[in-house]
Amino acid sequence: MIGGLFIYNHKGEVLISRVYRDDIGRNAVDAFRVNVIHARQQVRSPVTNIARTSFFHVKRSNIWLAAVTKQNVNAAMVFEFLYKMCDVMTAYFGKISEENIKNNFVLIYELLDEILDFGYPQNSETGALKTFITQQGIKSQTKEEQSQITSQVTGQIGWRREGIKYRRNELFLDVLESVNLLMSPQGQVLSAHVSGRVVMKSYLSGMPECKFGMNDKIVIEKQGKGTADETGKSELGSGKQSIAIDDCTFHQCVRLSKFDSERSISFIPPDGEFELMRYRTTKDIILPFRVIPLVREVGRTKLEVKVVIKSNFKPSLLAQKIEVRIPTPLNTSGVQVICMKGKAKYKASENAIVWKIKRMAGMKESQISAEIELLPTNDKKKWARPPISMNFEVPFAPSGLKVRYLKVFEPKLNYSDHDVIKWVRYIGRSGIYETRC
Amino acid sequence: MLRVAEGCPKLCVLISVLFISGKSKEAEIKRINKELANIRSKFKGDKALDGYSKKKYVCKLLFIFLLGHDIDFGHMEAVNLLSSNRYTEKQIGYLFISVLVNSNSELIRLINNAIKNDLASRNPTFMGLALHCIANVGSREMAEAFAGEIPKILVAGDTMDSVKQSAALCLLRLYRTSPDLVPMGDWTSRVVHLLNDQHLGVVTAATSLITTLAQKNPEEFKTSVSLAVSRLSRIVTSASTDLQDYTYYFVPAPWLSVKLLRLLQCYPPPEDPAVRGRLTECLETILNKAQEPPKSKKVQHSNAKNAVLFEAISLIIHHDSEPNLLVRACNQLGQFLQHRETNLRYLALESMCTLASSEFSHEAVKTHIETVINALKTERDVSVRQRAVDLLYAMCDRSNAQQIVAEMLNYLETADYSIREEIVLKVAILAEKYAVDYTWYVDTILNLIRIAGDYVSEEVWYRVIQIVINRDDVQGYAAKTVFEALQAPACHENLVKVGGYILGEFGNLIAGDPRSSPLIQFNLLHSKFHLCSVPTRALLLSTYIKFVNLFPEIKTTIQDVLRSDSQLKNADVELQQRAVEYLRLSTIASTDILATVLEEMPPFPERESSILAKLKKKKGPGTVTDLEEIKKERSSDMNGSAEPATVVSTPSPSADLLGLGAAPATNSAPPPSSSGNLLVDVFSDSPSAVAPLAPGSDDNFARFVCKNNGVLFENQLLQIGLKSEFRQNLGRMFIFYGNKTSTQFLNFTPTVICSDDLQSSLNLQTKPVDPTVDGGAQVQQVVNIECVSDFMEAPILNIQFRYGGTFQNLSVKLPITLNKFFQPTEMSSQDFFQRWKQLSNPKQEVQNIFKAKHPMDAEITKAKIIGFGSALLEEVDPNPANFVGAGIIHTKTTQIGCLLRLEPNLQAQMYRLTLRTSKEAVSQRLCELLSEQF
Fold first, then answer.
1. Position A392 pLDDT exceeds 90
2. Total tally of structural domains belonging to chain A
3. Same-domain pairing of A270 and A409
4. Do residue A190 and residue A279 come from a single domain?
5. Is residue A147 a part of any domain in this protein?
6. Largest alpha-carbon pair distance within chain A?
7. Which residues bind a 1,2-diacyl-sn-glycero-3-phospho-(1D-myo-inositol-3,4,5-trisphosphate) per the record (chain B) (predicted)?
8. What pLDDT is stored for residue B568 in this prediction?
9. What's the number of CA atoms in the CB half-sphere (13 Å) around residue A256?
10. Can you give the CATH number for the domain in which A214 is found?
C-alpha cells in the first residue's frame, strides 16, 4: 500500500509531504529528488526503485506528484489514485500549479487525510468530498446535515447525496477518443488503436436510475437473436454500425453484476461531471487522415521531402487544429518549405518542420514540399528517420462508437425520460499518430 | 572556458542564457538545437566566414560539447583555424581538437600537418600551442608522429626556454603513454645537461622528464646524479631572494628541490666522494633550515619547507648510509610528532616507519616510543592512529616488546573497528616473536582473545596451540590459565576453542589441584558447549574423548553425554558421527588402545608463521614484508632457537585431532571433513584427493611389462591407450584419452602422481591437455620420462573430469617399469658364465620358484623375454630348454648389468627364475616383474 505521498515543484522543493506508514523515512523525500528530479539523464520510467523503495510519479505542468511505497503494490492502482488525486485537486482549485498548491496546502492535507487511509485509497469522488471538505470557512452544520453526510459517505451510494433538485433536468454526454496509429511508408497499418472515454455531466434531480446503451457488438447480436422480426434490421446494423470493444472499465457507480449478466450499463450517476467509462478498440478503426510521405536524398547534402495528407471522412465534417510534424536530420543547415494550405515553418529548436492547418473538410487533400540542405559530417551514423507525426481534432468517434440511448428513470419524482434534456457530443483526437518515412 | 569567452561576446550571451536564466532541461535542449542549427547554416553558407566568426562558432560548439551534447560537425572549421596566424584563433582551434577529435578521424593527417608546420615555425607561442596539443591528445598516433621530433626541439640550441619547457613535459607525457615509441638516442646525454640550464622552469620540466626516464633506464642517465647534486646545492645555499620568480613564500624553488631529490632516489648514494660530500652537505643544510624559525607565518611557507624536508628525509632513508643524517632526520621527525598539523604528524609517523627499519636509526626511533604511544591514545584522526600502530610495530624489538604489546592491547579495547583485525594480528606476531618467556605469550594471546575475540582470526589461535604443543615448559601454565579464563561467565568462542584443545591435551597437568579436578574441568567446558557453533562443538567432542583417556574416572559421565540424544541424533552429520564413533571407541577399546589412539599430539613442524602470512596478504606486498625480512636477519628471534627441538617427527598429513588414522576401530570412516578445514592449518596441508586405483588396472599393468603399446584402461566412459618408446635412460609415452560417450567431458585434468621416493628416481614431464574433451573425440598427452636411478613403484595416473553433472575421478598405474630401460646385450656362452660367476654375491642373486599361470609354450616365453627387454641368448645354457638373457639397465646415474636364467619344469608346471644384477634392489624388482609374466 502507499506509504507516503510527496508533491514537489520543478526545483525539487517539497511542497506537500504526507507519510502514511512508518517504513517510509525522511530520506525518501531526498532520494526521489536526487535520483529522479535532479537526475543527470532524464528519467523516463514513471516507476523508479531506489534502495528497495518504489516511487510512482506523475508530472502535471511542472509539479511532480510521487507516491512512495516499500511494499509490492499494484502499480496500476497507485497511478489510478494519482490521476484521481489530480482530478480532485483540479476540481477544488483549478490548475495544478506551484502557486495554487502553496495557497491550498491546508486543503490538500485535508483531502489527503480523507482519500487515503493508512495508504489505502478511499472515496475520491469529488462530488462527495465537496459536501464535507469545503474551501469556505468553518460552517457549523446542523445535526441533520451531519448525519446526512455520514450516512451518505458510509452508505451504499457514497457518490451521490439525496435531495438534489434541479429546475431543468439536463445531462451532457461526451464521447472523447484518441486514435493512435503507426503506419508504414507504403500505407500499411502496423498498429492502430483507439482509447476512448465517455464523460457525463449530469444535472438531475433525486436519485435517478440511468441506463446507457451503445452500439456494442455483443449487445446488438444478442438482441438480433432475441427478436426474430428485427433480424433484418439489426443485421444491417451489426454489419456496419456495431463495434467490438476490446476492454472497458467503468465508474464505480455502474452496477457491474448487471453488466456481467445482461451487458447493460445501468447506474445512479454522481452529481456533476464524471467519467462513466473507458474503453479501447482495435478493430475497424476509421483513420481520419492518411499521410503519404516521400523522402528523396539528393547526394550527401540535400534532402527533398514531400508529404501529402488526405482527410478520410464525410465532406460535411470539419477537422480542426491540424498539425503535421516532419522531423529533420540533425545536420540540417537550411530548409525551404512550400505548402498549399496552412502555414509551415522549420523549427530548429525541435529539429522538425511544423505544418499547421486550422481547418480541413473531409475528403480533401493537401501537400507540402520541403528542401532540406545538409551539412556533411564526419560521422558515419545514418540518420534514423523518425516517423512523421500528426495532431488533429475531428467531430466524430474514430472507433465508430454510437450512443444508442441514455434512459433516465426517477420513480419518486415526477419527471420522466422525455423531460430530460440530453446532449451528446463526439470528439476524436490524435494520440500518437505516426507514419514512417 | 569563461576566460576564452571573454574575447567572444556572443558566447558570453549563450553561456548566460543557458546558465543564469536557469531554465529547465527541455528549454536548454531547445536552445541548443536552435544554436546548432544556426551554426550549421553559417558553416553551410556559401560566403566564406572570416576568422573571427569561425572562431566564435567553433568556440560555441566546444562549449555545447562540454555541456554534454554530441557534436558531429565543425571539425573541418577547427582544423582551418589551425592555419590562422592569429593567436586566439589558433588557440581555439587547438583547444577544439584536443577535446573533440578522436584518433581515428580522417582529419588526423591534416591536423598532424598543421602541428608540424607550427613546430617548424620558430614562433615560440605557436610551437607552445602545438606541443600542448600533442600532450593533451597524447595518443599513440601522436606519439608515432612526433616522438622523434620533440627531442630535437628539446635539445636544439636556439629553442626558447618556454618552448623547451613545453617540449620536455610533452615528451614526458608521450613517454608515459607509449614508452616504446620514444626513441633513446644521443639526445639523452644532452637532456641531462638541461639540469644546468639558466632557466629554472626548464630545469624543473627536465627533472620531471629525467626522473621518469631514469626509472626505466638508470644507466643512460647516470651522469644526471652529479648535475642534480650541484644544482640542488646551488638552490639550497642560495639566499631566498636570489631565484626571484622561483622563490615561493621565502622557500627557494621548492618544486624543483623536491623533484631533484626524487631523481636522486632513483640511484644509490654517489660513489664520487666529492659529490657525496656535497650531497650530504645539502641534506644537512635542509635539516638545518628546518630548525630555523619560520620566515613567514603563512601556511604556504611551512608547507613548502616541509615538503622539501620530507623528500630529503626519504632520500636519506633511501641511501641508508649516513648514520648521522639518519639520526638527525629521526629527531626532526620526532619534533613533528607533536606538531599541531595533523598532516605533518601523519607524514612523520609514516617516514619513521621506514626509518625504523634502518639499522642506524632504529635506536633513535625507539626514543620516541612514549610520544608514539601517546599519539595512539590521544590522536583524533583514525588514519594517524593507524600509522602510529604501524610505527609501534616497526620499532618493536625484544627490549620494548612487553611495553608495546601491552600498549597495543590497551588501545585495542577502544580501537576503531576498521583497524582492529590488523592490530590483533600485529599483537599476535609481536608477542610470538619477542616472547622472552612463554607464559607471557600465553597471557597476551588469551588477553587478546578476551578483548577482541571477534577479530582474532583462526590463524592466531592455531598458532597458540602450535606453540603450546611444541613447548613443554608452558603446557602446565597454559592449561591453568585457560582454565581460569574459561571461568569467566561469558567467554568468546575462540577462547573456548583454545581452552578445549589445551585442556584436552594437557588437562592432566592441572588435575591434581582439587579446584580443577577432572570433573570440574569437564563441567566447565560442557557448560559452554551449547552456546558454541558446530565446528567448536566438534572440537569439544574430541576434547571429551581425550578426557576419557586422561581421566578414566569421569569416563561414565562423558559416555552419558555422548550417548544423549542431542549428540547421537544430532542433525549435523559431523557431530553425530563423532559422537557415535567416540562412544564406541570409549566402550570397546581397552586402556592400552585408548592410550595409543588418544596419545598427545606430536610437535608441529616449524614453518613460517601463518599469522605473518596473513598480515602480508592483508597489507599487500609492501612495507611489512620488507621490514620482516630485515628484522629476521637482524635478530635471531626465539622461534629460531626453538627449531631444533621441534623437528623431531612429522605428523602424518592426514592425522586428525586424535590421530584417528591409527585407530583400527574408526579407520573405516573417511577423515571428518569439517575438522579437516577447521584445523587444516594446525596440521599440514591436506593431501589432494586421489581416487583409489581403478579395478582391473593391475592386470593391465602386468601386461604392459612386456609390451609398449595397447589399451591401458577402459570403462563405459573413457578409454586410455598407450604408445611408448624407450631408449637408454630416456623414454616417451603417448597417452590417448578417448571419450566413448557423446557428451563433452569438462574440466578434464589428468595428472601423473609420483610418490616421494619415486620422484627422486624418475623424472616425468607431462604436457597439459585441453580441459574439454568432446564426445567421441580423443586427446593425446605426451609424457617425457627420464630414469635417474632404479625404482620400485610405478607412477599413478589420476584423471579427474566432469561428465554430465557428475564428477569422475579415477586412477590407474602407469606402466613405467624398471625393465623399460633395458638395453639388450649379446654375449657368448663363455662371457655369460664368466659374468654370472662374478655376480655370485648372495645379495646380488634373487631366485624365485613359482607355478606357471599360463600354458608353458617355449615360443611365447621367448617372446616375453625379448619383450621384457633383455637379449635372449641362444646356445648358452647347456640345457636347451632353459632360457638365458642379458642386458643393461640404463639410468642417468648408473648402468646396471643384468643376467637372467629361466628354467621351466614341464612335469611340475613350475618355473625357476634366477636373476643376477650388480644391485640387490634391481634384482628384486626385476624378478618380481618377470615372475608375473609366466
1. yes
2. 3
3. yes
4. yes
5. no
6. 83
7. 42, 52, 56-60
8. 80
9. 6
10. 2.60.40.1170
Sheet holding A403-409, edge to edge: A265-267, A209-214, A403-409
Residues in chain B with CB shorter than 8 Å from the CB of A350 are 30, 33
Residue type, B863: A
Retrieve residue B841's grid coordinates: 654375491
> Do residues A72 and A38 both lie within one domain?
yes
Same domain, A244 and A372: no
Q: Which of B48, B71, B45 is nearest to B59 (CA)?
A: B71
What is the residue range of A111's domain? 2-123
A86-99 pLDDT, tens digit each: 999 998 998 999 99
Residues of chain B in contact with residue A332, where contact means CB-CB under 8 angstroms, are 37, 40
Same domain for A112 and A13: yes
At A212, list the grid cell.
446507457
Look at B40 and A10 and tell me if their CB atoms are within 8 Å.
no
Residue A245 lies in a domain: yes
User: What would the grid cell of residue B682 be?
Assistant: 594446525
C-alpha cell at A149: 453526510
Q: Are residues A337 and A192 in the same domain?
A: no
User: Residue B17: its chain A contacts at CB < 8 A?
Assistant: none
Q: Tell me if residue B467 falls in helix, strand or coil.
A: helix
Note whether A349 and A218 are same-domain residues: no
B34 touches chain A (CB under 8 A): yes
Q: Which helix (H) or strand (E) holds B346?
A: helix B342-356
| Helix, strand, or coil (residue B696) | coil
With contact defined as beta carbons under 8 Å apart, do B765 and B731 qualify? Answer: no
Examine the pLDDT at B620 and tell me if it is beyond 60: no
Residue B135 exposed, middle or buried by CB count within 10 Å (0-12, 13-18, 19+): buried
Cβ pair B900, B832 in contact under 8 A: no
pTM of the model: 0.56
pLDDT digits (tens, 9 = 90+) for B169-212: 999 998 888 888 887 777 888 888 888 888 888 899 999 999 99
Q: For the segment B802-859, what is each residue's pLDDT rounded down to a tens digit? A: 777 677 788 888 888 888 888 888 877 778 888 877 777 777 788 888 888 777 777 7
Long-range contacts at B6-9 (CB < 8 A, ≥ 24 apart): B7/B88, B8/B55, B8/B56, B8/B59
- Cβ A333–B34 below 8 Å, yes or no? no
Tell me if A153 is assigned to some domain.
no
Q: Is residue A420 part of a domain?
A: yes
pLDDT of residue B661: 36
Cα–Cα distance, A408 to A418 (Å, whole number): 9
B471: phi then psi, degrees, rounded to nearest 5:
-115, 115
Kindly list the distances between the CA atom of residue B429 and the CA atoms of B477, B628, B682, in Å, as whole numbers in the listed order.
20, 11, 16
What totals of helices (H) and strands (E) does chain A contain, helices first?
9, 23
Residue B646: its pLDDT value, please?
Answer: 32
Enumerate the H helices of B51-160 as residue ranges: 51-66, 75-82, 87-100, 108-119, 124-137, 140-146, 149-155
Of the residues A333, A351, A383, the best mutation for testing chain B's interface (the one with the most B CB atoms within 10 Å of its CB) is A333
Respond yes or no on whether ipTM tops 0.90: no
Angle between helix B51-66 and B75-82 (nearest 10): 130
The single residue listed with the C-alpha cell 647347456 is B878
Q: What is the pLDDT of residues B42-75, one digit of tens each?
A: 888 766 778 888 888 888 888 888 888 888 888 8
Same domain, A21 and A115: yes
Phi/psi for B248 (5° steps) reads -115, 110
Q: Do A10 and B24 touch (CB under 8 A)?
A: yes
CATH number for position A108: 3.30.450.60
What does the alpha-carbon distance between residue A17 and residue A21 come to, in Å, rounded to a whole number?
12
